[in-house]
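Handout, tutorial session.
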Amino acid sequence: MERRAPRLLVSSVLSLFVLAAACGESREERLRREMGYEAKEKPEAKTEIPDIPPHPDREKLRPLLEALYSQPKIPDVTEGDVEDNEAHYQLEPGVMSVVKLPSGLSPEQKVRAIVRATAEADAWAYRPNIRRPYADQIHKIKRGFGEDQAALIQKAYADLKLLAFFNGPKADEAIGKLPAEVRPTVEKMKAEYQKGKQDVWDRWMKIKMYARRVVSRDEPFRPLLRGLQKQMGLEEPPPRTWMESMDEPFKGWAKQIAESEKLFEMLTNLREPKDREAFMTDTHSLWVMEGSPLVPDKAKDVVIDKKLGFGVLREDLGGGYNDLTFVFSRRLSGNKLRYAFLQSIIYGSLLRDFQMFAAAANDFATRDGDGKIDPNTAMVPDKYDPLYARCGSKAAIDTLLTHYGKDFPVLAGLRPTTKKAEKILDVAHECVIEGARPDIYIPDPNDDKDVTGPAPGTRLAFYQMLARFEKLDVNLAAMASDEKTEEDEAIEDAEAVLKRIKAQQEAGKGVK
């Protein structure tokens, strides 16, 4: 008969094996095993780096490319079935950038493409002191300013890098090491960058200013731009202060506005002290008289709007900001010029009033047969921004004068077109409706279901915007029309009767 170990002994032996096995486990591993869901470790996926054979033209240019590129390993070059373009290359960006050339390029086109592509790839090279990765910078520009601005930034780096290189001390030495078959093309490129430095800089300056700022304060652009400033005197235009932005007729009024924080905030809609300070030190606007020597060449042909008394040259800086040049009619003077000047400041602030444009957006959205709005199409078209600024600024200046005309010296003596708030709003609303036909929403007059009326979003947008120019404790009697209506007289008669009845009751005479 087979002998069996006692159950207690078997149990003890098994426990020892379990404890022994557990001795090498961490607490987390033991918990996972006991709970029955221990995960199997997956081996890390290895990134395969393709082995790209040296391109013969890249090898011929190696002495130049090594002097141009910031890292020891210059980008690989391939040639094959890729779409051709104006630059004759496509760049696969990153710290291991690859330059892709389309088939069929001439020898000169290949040399130019490889040199330019290597200069562009240099922006992606690893830099230990960078604050924000270059990829993040480019992504921010794409998100905030558009794909076109991001592409221009990347091409601009190549231009600026080559401009600095071909005008620097390393160029001649590197070119001297090149073989004869590629040297003439590189010499030609050098001459082009030495002769056309202003063209390169002008292309950089045409990129939206706020998009330029995203990259210009960090690697890789910052040291490059500083070097160009020292080397060739190329630099951004200096900031222009609030007072420096004024032609002579406006300086006194501008000074009074600047000295009143409340009025300055209302006119500019800059509520944060840091935003007001930034605007005061870098205004991005210019107020000049027609025919003045201060009128910049770019604004010589600005058309004066007779209703406004000024014309506007608007340049997009990106991020919702504008560079504005206001040119005032030489026929204006005195109170008319002061009225137009104040309205122009509000005009500028409304061009960046995102809340106003957001409220009006549904008026331009597409609608289905039931009148339901497609939210993806709800946006005020850019071409109507000046229309909203023109109509809204007229309503705003009249509202400001109605409520604050006696509070600020710079407003003294100016009269609003009307003091009635409803009429001010009606005029501004109708101004936009007429100017934005047929794009703006106007319901079918035979549609009994529609109770909103034409362009309800625009009306709400102006109603909200005008609130910043109103006093909460305004004397409503002062806003009344000078002429009494029959309704006004009836109300006054009723109030008189009530007062007489109350007086008689208090005197104990009863009511007759």
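The second record follows below. Compare its token runs with those of the first.
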Amino acid sequence: MLNEAFEHISGRVEETLQPQGFTRAKIASANDNELVALFTSENMAYSVIYYKDKQHTLLRECGMTDEGPDNNWKTLATWIFDPEHDTMKEASSIANDFCDAISAPSAVKKLKQAKKTKKSDDGNADPLFLSKRFVTLFPDIKDEIRNEQDCYYPFRGVTFARASIVPRVNKLVHEGKAGELKKLGNILNAQYVNGDADTRSIITIVILNGIPEADEAKIEEYLSDNLKKAFQYAKKWRNKTAKPEKEKKKKKTIAQRLEGMQR
């Protein structure tokens, strides 16, 4: 009964999302306590998830990155479904509510805005945008990005890349797992094409040049032809002392700002 009801709800959501450019992804549940259906477009993702222990059915949304959902999920609706007492009638009610939520004018407007933002970002990708792309590979880097934003303005792209991105990239490349190397290559290729001058320099001179020479061949096979050529050119800067990034004004922490307001 539960599986039938979940597929009914998911199927209805899929039918509603397809005209908006969404496709259903082939994914497996993370554990035995969950049933999950994922729907993605270029700019947004929706998921229907059922938690067996709580008997909760959720509709969620989040943004998309080059590597998939950014996993910053926002719950749009929650319903209780008890498979021992509820029927397909209740499942249909849940499906109707979910479909209303994703087809509402506000939802359609949000999708259009996400497309517009993505287009703008792709044309003007800066070092901060580049750094956020690595969250899909290194989820723990998210807090370091937030801390950098809180403490410094503008974002210190070179400093952050050297301290937080390069060590993680080097470890990943050294371990040489094909799936992760491919994801890394996809991020670097996309952001080299879409990035501004600072972003391109960070990719070639900081990140790629930061990879030990013994390991660089492992990532080169996953780089685009354009990025390979740029990397070869950037190698002449390896081991040379570059002009340090201009020190930027450190922002006061939230606590310091509140303390100042109380004086």
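Points raised in discussion: Confidence is low (pLDDT under 50) at residues 119-123, 252-263.
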